[in-house]
Amino acid sequence: MPPLCLLLCLVGETGAKRVPKIPRCPVTCSCTKDSAFCVDTKAIPKSFPPGIISLTMVNAAFTTIPEGAFSHLHLLQFLFVENNDVQALSKHTFRGLKSLTHLSLSNNNLQFLPRELFKYLDILTDLDLRGNSFRCDCKIKWLVDWMEKTNTSVPAIYCASPFEFQGRRIHDLTPRDFNCISADFAVYETFPFQSVSVESYEFNNNQFVAFAQPDTGFCTLFVWDHVEMVFRMYHNITARSAVYCKPVVINNTLYMVVAQLFGGSHIYKWEEDPQRFVKIQDIDTTRVRKPNFVETFQLDDEWYFAVADSSKAGSTSIYRWNSNGFYSHQSLHPWHRDTHVEFLDVEGKQRLILSSASQPPVVYQWNRSLRQFAFHSQITETFDVQMVKHFWVRNVLYLCLTRFIGDSKILRWEGQRYVEIQTLPSRGSMAVYPFTVGPRQYLLLGSDFSFSRVYLWDDLTQRFQPFQELNMRAPRAFSLVSVDNKDMLLAASFKGNTLAYQHLIVDLSAK
Ligand SMILES: *[C@@H]1O[C@H](CO)[C@@H](O)[C@H](O)[C@H]1NC(C)=O
Ligand SMILES: *[C@@H]1O[C@H](CO)[C@@H](O)[C@H](O)[C@H]1NC(C)=O
Ligand SMILES: *[C@@H]1O[C@H](CO)[C@@H](O)[C@H](O)[C@H]1NC(C)=O
Ligand SMILES: *[C@@H]1O[C@H](CO)[C@@H](O)[C@H](O)[C@H]1NC(C)=O
């Protein structure tokens, strides 16, 4: 506020009058009554003679312009900051320049301009941005938007990068040319226990998750609290060495298949009055000796579950629902130490993919007339596959094969066989999880010896691209839950807290 300062500056400590000190022309500038022309300036001078309406700065030694650098020059109408090496501006660089009609930042080294840079320049008629090296990405989306609407005249400017936009006239771009929506997985809720399985299910219009906790000896259920917006402890089922807690809702009744390493595996039924789980069935321990995983599926309108058995003597077994209990339906190959079983329906054929410690993954196919699964094929030559999961992208089927060490693999179904299209490094990977949020196809590859990694499917290359690293300790299972407009990724952790991550949409152009 120069006028106020001038008045106060007249009054010394003794009150004696002094000669008013009118700011002089800065040493690097030459001034006339209403203009200043500055060359080789090291910093923007703090004071100028009053009445300056035109300021020019060329060959300046500074590369950034701080916030409010010109705020003491509110009479300024013309500002030419040209032929310098300015690389960055603060969002509030031009704050206070209410009278500015002409602004030039031409021939600098600007790659982008902060959002709302010109917001308070209400009467700006001419803006020269030529001769910069603009990077046409999300950071200038606002500029494209602004130029489309403003009445300020802006001579043509061009993109210097990225490659696909090089040489394009920025006026010709539209906000739609920028894909600025990204995402972030952020920890939302921490559960203070270790777990090895996580499954989500809906029951009685509520959203639940079930965790297997071998060290505390429970299958623990949490329910989503729509008011507090968190998962809240709901119920425990005692299960001394639970490795998998698999919910299945049949005919509005909730059943829980509780697979245990010791003491056999059991099936529980939820009763409403009083609210409790009642054990309705034991699973034959001569078949299932060392369960590792439970899969449920529907086939010809009937419910089944399959328990992958990882012992030498046991075998992966299939059970079928029969109005009041699960009946042993079929035992698949014994002696193979199966780690995982995945159900999928391909072109009307129902298949199970078995991952085993003893051999590469194999496919069993449903034979409708026999009502049995029969050996169909081997997928690849790859050994040591912990888990095979499938996913679809635009009606094309893909598999991901997790290996503990070495490379995990992505295969594409090509009508007759699976073809390997990508490898992903495994650093102690026990679990993989393909999932979608809106149009985005992700793959999460768990890791014991490094960060777990989220990959995002890229439609252009038809491959996964690394997307985000997540710090989990020995992840064993994942599950996506969407409730109250939140997309949450739950991660069972064998050696740390169990975690829920929220998938947040991020607009990269909004910074
Ligand atoms: C541009 O000028 C027109 C006509 O004077 C006016 O209606 C419009 O509001 C102006 N646009 C902006 C963004 O100032
Ligand atoms: C379940 O068990 C945990 C661990 O012992 C305990 O903290 C929790 O209160 C139990 N929850 C219910 C609903 O019984
Ligand atoms: C569903 O439950 C009802 C009531 O308990 C029973 O009458 C019906 O048979 C059940 N249906 C099936 C397919 O199990
Ligand atoms: C089902 O099994 C029967 C008996 O082995 C066989 O003849 C038939 O071809 C099989 N069906 C299919 C679709 O594979």
From TrEMBL:
Gene3D superfamilies the UniProt entry points to: Ribonuclease Inhibitor (3.80.10.10)
Record's keyword terms, sorted: Glycoprotein, Leucine-rich repeat, Repeat, Secreted, Signal
Keyword Repeat among UniProt keywords: yes
Signal peptide (from-to): 1-16
Location in the cell: Secreted
Pfam families named in the record: EPTP, LRR_8, LRRCT
GO terms for cellular component: extracellular region; synaptic vesicle
LRRCT domain residues: 132-181
GO biological process, one term: regulation of exocytosis
SMART domains membership: LRR_TYP, LRRCT
InterPro entries: Cys-rich_flank_reg_C (IPR000483), EAR (IPR009039), EPTP (IPR005492), Leu-rich_rpt (IPR001611), Leu-rich_rpt_typical-subtyp (IPR003591), LGI_related (IPR051295), LRR_dom_sf (IPR032675)
Taxonomic superkingdom: Eukaryota
Designated name of the protein: Leucine-rich repeat LGI family, member 3
Lineage per the UniProt record: Eukaryota, Metazoa, Chordata, Craniata, Vertebrata
